[in-house]
Amino acid sequence: MKIKTISILTLFAITTMNAQNKAHLDKTKPIEERIDLLMKQMTLEEKVGQMNQYNGFWEVTGPAPKGGTAELKYEHLRKGWVGSMLTVRGVNQVRAVQKIAVEQTRLGIPLIIGFDVIHGYKTLSPIPLAEAASWDLAAIKKSAQVAAAEASASGINWTFGPMVDISREARWGRVMEGAGEDPFLGSKIAEARVRGFQGDSFGDLAKVNTIAACAKHFAAYGFSESGKEYNTVDIGNATLYNTVLPPFKAAKDAGVRTFMNSFNILNGIPATGNKFLQRDILKGKWNFNGYVITDWASIREMINHGFAADGKEASQRAVEAGADMDMESHLYVAELVNLVKEGKVDIKLIDDSVRRILRVKFELGLFDNPFLYCDEKREKETVGSKANNDAVLDMAKKSIVLLKNERNLLPLKKSGQKIALIGALAKDKTSPLGSWRIAAEDNSAVSVLEGMQQYKDNQLTYEKGADLTVGPTTFTAELVFNTTDKSGFEAAKKAAASADVVVMVLGEHGFQSGEARSRTSLDLPGVQQELLEEIYKVNPNIVLVLNNGRPLALPWAAEKIPAIVEAWQLGTQTGNALAQVLYGDYNPSGKLPMSFPRNVGQCPIYYNFHNTGRPTNSEGNVFWSHYTDVEKTPQFPFGFGLSYTTFEYKNLKLDKATYAKGEKVNVSVELTNTGNFEGKEVVQLYIRDITASLSRPVKELKGFELVELKKGETKTIRFTLTENELGFFDNEGNYLVEPGTFKVFVGTNSDEVKETAFVLK
After folding, report:
1. pTM score, two decimals?
2. What is the pLDDT of residues 602-630, one digit of tens each?
3. What's the rounded Cα separation, in Å, for the pair 26 and 65?
4. Is residue 166 domain-shared with residue 280, that is, in the same domain?
5. How far is CA 699 from CA 137, 576, 690, 729, 752, in A?
6. What CATH number is attached to the domain comprising 739?
7. Sign of the torsion formed by the C-alpha atoms of 473, 479, 485 and 488
8. Looking at the structure, do residues 273 and 406 belong to the same domain, yes or no?
9. How does DSSP classify residue 54?
């Protein structure tokens, strides 16, 4: 009887313990309580494990790896010493690795699966810089929703996007990932992309078709000196607070759940080890309660920066600075446990990081259903669907910018024309996908040739002219360009000579921009410029279609070529989008999100610069701010873009001339479609604070509206300026709204504007 009683008590104790161990799985409890319950059970090693992210290191549906680092990582995974994995994709792969985490580890904590979903998963939208050219926030949000739907259907629950780095530097390859040079536009796009990935409300994150977003790279990565990748950043606080940080704050306010720090130094301190950025601003002043992941191996790279002597010191500096998860340095998992035991790292720092990571996992619903994102049926139905292709086609059309259209060469006639299509990029089905498209298959884009072939009532002749590249083109290897083979020139010239119109598709290869793709020349690579000039000699009726991931400097083309179309890298539906624009089935409405220089010597060039003490040649001598060999203005300014129709701005008005502090400033302008086509116009509002305690830029974008007008139609466009638009940050990060005179500019781009002014008391 006594033995029986003991057995019952033992069974009861075990049952009670198991219930306590699973208490964090109770969905009725608040998330913070569930985190508390789980963390009480975690060993120090398991806590540090949550701060460790590994790249995919073996074929997860096959046998366990043997030997080397793969076997070590596998053992870490089985022990619960891995909190996240990246580049594991596809339902079968993700389910297999998640089963190890959930079923073989002591506590069964699920992994968060990350992936670079930058401008789509398999069905690709235009590169982000191109999307920014649409100025269409609803379309940009929809693009992110499509990306999230496909990625989540493939097992992924976290993207390393959006990149919200502001950059004025066309030489920097990663401008293709961002929204351009302006912090106001960049902030609006950051918000749209975060909401597209995650949903509009807190609860949306747990839905099956959303994924956690990541605002990167925190901070100032876009200001790498000379545009050289990973280079030094040396900027003042005025630029930091007023240009660099606003899009990150907008992402935070939109609910972004993770941040990624950057590779660069700021004030001599690598961002990964920068307390000022990560603890003082992000987690302190902004009260961000998600987590910060490092960029790839950036903890280890602090040794090369000279900021840490070895991996142990680098780990200590990173965790103290606020970096919560280590991406592929393999240092947190190796060093943090001993650092805590030696008293060099406070366990409170570890607990804070782990709480942040677990919080996001709970918010995603991973503890309630670790296999929420592992549904083969949904994967098959969602990835590459017609609806997704329709959405990215819409985004692609909206991203195209008409830069020049002399003699109304565009739109092309739909019948009775002989058209010569020239350029290797016109037939290319891979380059138009752009960079950062890891899940997309090569040769999966609709080529420009294929798109134009859908219009069958013209005589279309294609000639390559010349290869752009030589040898393989991959994400990780340097490209080799054709600089000698011009054997196709004669055939191209013959086709052009007999054509009514020549469409030339020239520019950069899709892998010529992106990470580690800095350039010192912004011209057409290879023999493309020579090909363009040779074709021009035999037929000047050229429509130049540009494929590129950054602003290019093309002074000869800007002067000589009658029609120029900025078509970026438009993704899966490139050819269809471009053909519909060229033939006038879609009237282009895009506007440049970055200034295009006249030559590379102007870089960095941007519209919202500060005046010097000698801005104009008022005395008729050489002593003023200018170049001796080229105009100081850009070739195409920020916000520039034409349409097949024309628009007239008139009657710019304010509701009064003087405003008290805190009063709203109401601005109106009349816009008329004076051309022959229905069209869209991005009405842009800029201000200038004439005199302030810090010098303010000559113009700052503070509002825009995408307006659609029928032929002959007039609409009154209204803007409201509040203290949110009229103020600025001082060098200590304090937001100020100062009295004085403000100019207001409204127009079609940053250069062509109507002007008025008011006084703020």
Report:
1. 0.96
2. 999 999 999 999 999 999 999 999 999 99
3. 35
4. yes
5. 22, 37, 10, 16, 12
6. 2.60.40.10
7. positive
8. no
9. E
